[in-house]
Every structure is written in C-alpha cells, then in structure tokens.
Amino acid sequence: MSLKLVVLYYSRHGGTRALARQVARGIESVAGCEAVLRTVPELSPQQADGEDPHLTLDELKQCDGLAMGSPVWFGNMAAPLKHFWDQTTPLWLSGDLIDKPACVFTSSSTLHGGQETTQQSMQLPLLHHGMLILGIPYSEPALHTTSSGGTPYGASHVSGHQDKLSAEENQLAQRLGQRLARIASQLKENS
C-alpha cells in the first residue's frame, strides 16, 4: 500500500518550485511513499499558472501527509496559498486532516527576507486543522553549516534572484521530505 504525500506549493519565480521538487525526491526515497506535486491557482488572471496541477480539497482530504511551500511575501505566505486554505473549512469541520503529519518550506530573495515568519504563517492553518507539524532537527549536520537556506522550521532557499539551490538547501529539503515520509509511514503502521 503506497502512501500519498502531497507537496503543495506556490511559486512565482521558481525557487519554491525547485524546493518542492527536492522535498518530493526525499519523500520518494522512502519505500512505499509517493510524492504528489500540486500548486494553487493564481489570484490574478495576468499571472501564468504553475507547471503542476491544482490541488483539490478531495486530494488534500485523502493524503497521508503534507509538505507546503510558499515564497516569502512580506514575512507571510503568498496570497494564493492563503486563499486556498481559506476554502478548507469543510475539511476543518469534519476533522479530515487531524493527526496527519505536515511540514513547510519557503524561499526568499535575501537571507533576512522573512523565511522563519513565513514558515510560521504557513504552520498556523495546519495547526488549526490538527495536523502534526514537523521541522528539521539540529541532528541534520547541514543545518549547522548552511550559509544560505535551511531553518529548524523547515527547508528554505535564498535565491539572490536565481532558482538554483545550494548543496545544503537541496540536502535539507530532501531530508525534510524523508522525515515527513518516515513519520507518515510510522503513523500508518500504528493506526
């Protein structure tokens, strides 16, 4: 039985999408786990939609875990992602996401662009849904040495206006995906 873990992201310039792909690689490195890459629609018709399909509420309801990513927008998650969560009240009322593991990731153009506050803003709806929040523990050596992205709240990327991830950013994003998949597998085995 394969576990389906949704990697939900919004990306304007590609940095968050690049992180999403690395989180998905980490998920799929765990036996029996499948990453399902999804995005959300743009709010403005002038913006082009992402490369991946849009997440539906039914897919979110059926998932075994969630990784969510957003670029930093003034220290918060991006409006299209927030708009998606504002529509999840039916799942909140039915408790469909309670006790499912979740993690977050983000990207910004500068090192002090608000990554940790953005990660915390993404965690808020997950907590309201009763999800189990996972971060990156300091047992990950790259968290101690990174000079670009990576926080205990989740994976991150400092773009400096380029989408290419550093070696540490790649590693930490994959480790976050692996941790999400391992915890989801353990929870499924014990249920």
UniProtKB/TrEMBL annotation:
<dbReference type="InterPro" id="IPR005025">
    <property type="entry name" value="FMN_Rdtase-like_dom"/>
</dbReference>
<keyword id="KW-0285">Flavoprotein</keyword>
<feature type="domain" description="Flavodoxin-like">
    <location>
        <begin position="5"/>
        <end position="181"/>
    </location>
</feature>
<keyword id="KW-0560">Oxidoreductase</keyword>
<comment type="similarity">
    <text>Belongs to the WrbA family.</text>
</comment>
<dbReference type="InterPro" id="IPR008254">
    <property type="entry name" value="Flavodoxin/NO_synth"/>
</dbReference>
<protein>
    <submittedName>
        <fullName>NAD(P)H:quinone oxidoreductase</fullName>
        <ecNumber>1.6.5.2</ecNumber>
    </submittedName>
</protein>
<dbReference type="GO" id="GO:0010181">
    <property type="term" value="F:FMN binding"/>
</dbReference>
<dbReference type="InterPro" id="IPR010089">
    <property type="entry name" value="Flavoprotein_WrbA-like"/>
</dbReference>
<dbReference type="GO" id="GO:0003955">
    <property type="term" value="F:NAD(P)H dehydrogenase (quinone) activity"/>
</dbReference>
<dbReference type="InterPro" id="IPR001226">
    <property type="entry name" value="Flavodoxin_CS"/>
</dbReference>
<keyword id="KW-0288">FMN</keyword>
<dbReference type="Pfam" id="PF03358">
    <property type="entry name" value="FMN_red"/>
</dbReference>
<dbReference type="GO" id="GO:0009055">
    <property type="term" value="F:electron transfer activity"/>
</dbReference>
<dbReference type="GO" id="GO:0016020">
    <property type="term" value="C:membrane"/>
</dbReference>
<feature type="region of interest" description="Disordered">
    <location>
        <begin position="145"/>
        <end position="171"/>
    </location>
</feature>
